[in-house]
C-alpha cells in the first residue's frame, strides 16, 4: 500500500495530491471522541468506507450499544445568480462517487481536530469537526472567504439512526417530519431513540423540508471484509444559509448536532472546546515521539453513565473488554503520569468481580456483562501491581485492592467458571475443547481455531505473579505467618511451572501443558512457538531465571519478531497463516495463527530489558522496536496503531484502526526508556 506523507507528529498534514481518492487516503481514518465512548470518524477525503463512519456515533441513554445517528452532511456552496453549485462532500455508490467534493480538497490536517481546506476560483472553504467533551454532541465549523454576493451554503443532514453494527434500508416506519424548528431543528425518525437536535450559529437561515432516501451507498472496507456493504440513508431536507451579500471578511457557520439538550450557542461552545483542545495540544511536546499516541490515548479512556472510568478496547467496533482494559490501562495512565485515573479504573472494576472473575465484555452491570475470559482478572492483578510500583504506595494498594486480589486467587485456586481449577501441581487449567478462554479466542463454526485448553503458559505466569504479589502484600501488612500459605503455593507453582513448561532442548517455554486423563499427574507439552511465552518472560514477578528469560527472547526474536509486532505462530509451523484478509472465517483462521499483534512488542521489549539489564544500548534497542509502527501513525488510523498486521511482508494492517492495548504498550515502553526503569 502506498505510504501517505507523515508530517510533524501529532499534527499529520496531507497535501492536495495525497487527499484525493487514493488507496492510502481512503484507508486513512480520523477519529474524534468525547470521553463517553462516543465518536465521529471518516477517511481523509471524508468518504465513508465503513458502516461505522459517521459524524455522531453515540450510545442512546440506557443502551450500551453505539448507534450511528448523523452519518454525514451533503455540503454545497451555491452562487444563486449564476446557478453554480460547488460540492465539498462525497459518498460512494455502485461504480461512482457523488458528489465529487474531493476534487477541490487542498489540505487535510488532523490536529487539534480534523480540518479540511477546499479551494475553488478564489474561494476558500474550511471544514472542521470536533466532538464536545462529556456530551453526545458534534460541532462542524465552516469558515468561508472570497465568495461573491448572493451566495448561500446548503447543508443536507443524512441519517442512519441504527446500531453501529447494522445497516438500514428505505422503510415506511421512519418518521420524516420536522418536530420543531426553533430554536433548533428537531428530528425523531424512530420511536424509542432520542431526537436529533440541529442548531446553527449562522443567524439567518431556513429549512426546506425535502424528505429523500439516498439509495445504495457503498462501504468499501465492509465489502473487503466480506460483509454486506450497501445501505440507504435518509435526508429530511436542506438548510439554506446566506453566506455573503456584499460584506467583507470570512463567514463562520457552526452546526451543532446532539442527542442531548439542544445547543443554545454553538459558537460559544466551539470557542470553549477549541481553547481546551489547543491547550492539550501545546501540553504535549511536538518533538516527542510519543506525542501522537499520547493524544490518541484519550480516545480510549471514558466515563460510563455511572461515572466509572473504563477503557474502550478499540475503534470503530469494540467496546469495553476486560482483558484489553487491564493490559492497556497502565500505559494509557501510569505511563503519562496519571496514576489517579488508573486508580479510578481499578476501583470501579471491582463492582464487576464475580466468583473471582472479571468480565470479558462489560455491560452496564454484572447481569449483562459477559464472563468468558479466564485471564481478565489475572491481567487486573498485574495492573494493580504496576500501579503499586508506579506510585510506591503499598499501603494504599493493600487497603484498596488486597481483598480483591485474595478473592481472585482463592477462587482460581479452589475452582471457578470457565474450567478454571488448580491441580496438585499448584498450576491452573482453563477452558475446554469447545471453549478458548484465553486471548487467542477465535472460533470457526463454534470450534476454537487455536486450541489452548489445559494449562496455558501465560495464564500460569500471570497466576504465579498474582500469588507472589499477594504474598508480598500480606507479609508487609499482616505477618510472615499469615503469608506462609501463599509462599508455599508460590514455591510449588514455580517448581511445577519449570517442570511442565521449560523445554531445555529448544531453550524455550511450551505454549501449554495438556494433562493425560489416563495418567495420574502425567501429560505432555505443546511446543508450538507462540508469543505467550514472551509474556511469562516479561513479568516482573516471573518464575523464570534471567537466563531463561534471555533464551525466550532469543527464540521470539528469531521466529516471531516483525517490524510491527510479534507473530502469533512461527512461520515454520505448518499451521502458519501469513496473510490476514478475506472473509470473516478466513480472517479468523489467521487471527492467532501467524497474524502480527503490536501490543506484544511491549512484552518483548520488557522481557529483553529484564534479561539483558538496563543500559544505554538495551534501552535504545527497546525504543527502536517501534520505528516502523511510528511511521504507521500517518496512515490507517491516524495517530493510532491498527489492531493487527499480516504475518508476511508487507505486513498489511487489518482489524480495528485504533486499538487500546497497542497504544498502551507503546506508551508504557516509551516511559520505561525515558525513566530508565521497568
- The stretches of 5 or more residues where confidence is low (pLDDT under 50) are 1-9
Number of helices: 18
Please identify the structural class as seen in this structure.
Answer: alpha+beta
Which radius of gyration do the C-alpha atoms yield? 27 Å
Number of strands: 37
- End-to-end separation in angstroms reads 36 Å
Strand content: 25-35%
Shape category: elongated
CATH architecture of the largest domain: Alpha/alpha barrel
Total discrete domains? 2
Helical content stands at 25-40%
**Widest sheet: strand ordering:** 1-9-10-11-12-19-16-15-14
Question: What is the class of the largest domain in the CATH system?
Answer: Mainly Alpha
- Average pLDDT number: 93
Biggest sheet descriptor: 9 strands, antiparallel
Annotated CATH topology of the largest domain: Glycosyltransferase
